[in-house]
Amino acid sequence: MTGIPFARRAALAALLATGLAGQALAQPRNLTIALSTNVNTLDPHNTTTIGTDLSVISHIHMALLVRGPDMKLQPQLATEWRAVDDTTWRFTLRSGVTFSNGEALDAEAVKWNLERVMNPANNARVRPWFALVSEVSVISPTEIEVKTRSPYPALADQLSTFFLLPPRWTQSNNPANSAVGAGPYELRQFTSGDRAVLQARAGWTGDRPAFDTVTFRVIPEAGARIAALMAGEVDLITGVPPSEMRRIDQSGRARSGHVDSIRSVFVKYNLLTPPFRDSRPLRQALNAAVDREAIRDAIWNGIGSVSTCQVLTPAYFGYNESLRAPTYDPARARRLLQEAGVRPGQLTIEFEVPIGPYLLAQEITQAVAAQLEEVGVRTRIVEMEFGAWMNKYLRAPTMGQMAYLSQAWPTLDADGLLALFESGSPYAYWNDEPFTTLLRQARQTTDAARRRAIYAQATQRMCEESPVLFLFTQPVTYATSNRVTWRARGDDWVRAGDIAPR
């Protein structure tokens, strides 16, 4: 065999090395995220659940705006937005954007989407978000105007959770279980209760996604999520029990962390039925009977903050800095129970707890129940799968006498979260006209100082009336594989765009 000269061998070796490196670089990057609860729908207009449904949807569909991990609004379809006056907003859109089926995503498509959810016949879950919208007008293919019946200062923030469907496709397809969108990924597989598989879309005009394939797997049990992470099957898990974080860190296979969230945890009372209806002493008694700090320290290892007699957290506009956490005072709780006409052992309360999305909800529920028992109030704990409980809570609606619940609002504005307790809201289970009147007054102005003053009164009223048993601000606990890093965020969004390969 004729020998190859050294120079040629070196050149060939370099060429082969370059080719192999190119092949390595060309290897697809896959990301797998574990979710604690099911993805119930892909229709962005029929869900308000950010941590699962809307997180998956946000990869497939575009919104006018999105909120980044720094909690600030960022442009997506809209390049500019401004309030023309107190009741008029104008949005300028990118030109030439299309859905993956070729339909134009222009001002007419945005108008169709807004009118779809505003139409009472469609019974869209997000319809209350746009109750104040009176008219949507197309100014040009790249400009749209939204008029409201009264000031809506948080409209732009609310639109960051409103994703856009292709009008023609939607009229002949079911967007609950299939998808055609304009986002960075397209749907490849959707099996409710198991997984959603997304693939980077060739027609996406934004920055190239860092991952070619993103898989969301539904793994309800925390132990199973941790096992999948340790086995290298998934790259990101949330809802990690704090007691497991050290073991994860010491494994050498993954890393854990936690950040403050915007999510408030409480026990919600059903004030439409006995025993909580018309019994403020009973509601206040239960608030005095619970040692929040002891429960947090024992179950969450001291992570998270105790609620300051309000459902707002410090991240929200309108947070009331003058309120303080209810004092743990079993003696006062017993006096209030006596005032409510409740004898020790006389009252047994049905206590529902949805299983899945809330950090160690079952353990906290049991601790709360034990402390209520100490002051003479018995409970009957009823555990339910989260989706079934949400249907019972909102669609039936037949929520039990009280339920463990956690809520947040992506606009980070008091009006959004407090509106869940407004008279007439399906979320409320409470009719309090003074509280509702204050919320409606705050909607009549765009003056920030005036709005803060009104929300201070509203949160004070809520603290005094105690429609819930105030508990905590829930932390976001998470762990990632050594393959990725995550810009952890406290507003429930789980997006591949916030994750980077290592």
From TrEMBL:
Q: Where is the Solute-binding protein family domain?
A: 72-424
From the UniProt annotation, give the residues forming the signal peptide: 1-26
Presence of keyword Signal: yes
Domain of life, per lineage? Bacteria
Q: What cellular component terms from Gene Ontology apply here? A: ATP-binding cassette (ABC) transporter complex; outer membrane-bounded periplasmic space
Any single GO molecular-function term of the entry would be: peptide transmembrane transporter activity
| Keyword Cytoplasm in record | no
Output the GO biological process annotations, alphabetical, semicolon-separated.
Answer: peptide transport
Q: What SUPFAM superfamilies does the record tag this protein with?
A: Periplasmic binding protein-like II (SSF53850)
Q: Name one Pfam family in it.
A: SBP_bac_5
What compartments host this protein? Periplasm
Keyword line:
Signal
Give the family, as the similarity comment puts it.
Belongs to the bacterial solute-binding protein 5 family.
**Entry's PANTHER family?**
ABC TRANSPORTER SUBSTRATE-BINDING PROTEIN, PERIPLASMIC BINDING COMPONENT OF ABC TRANSPORTER
In Swiss-Prot or TrEMBL terms, this protein is called: Peptide/nickel transport system substrate-binding protein
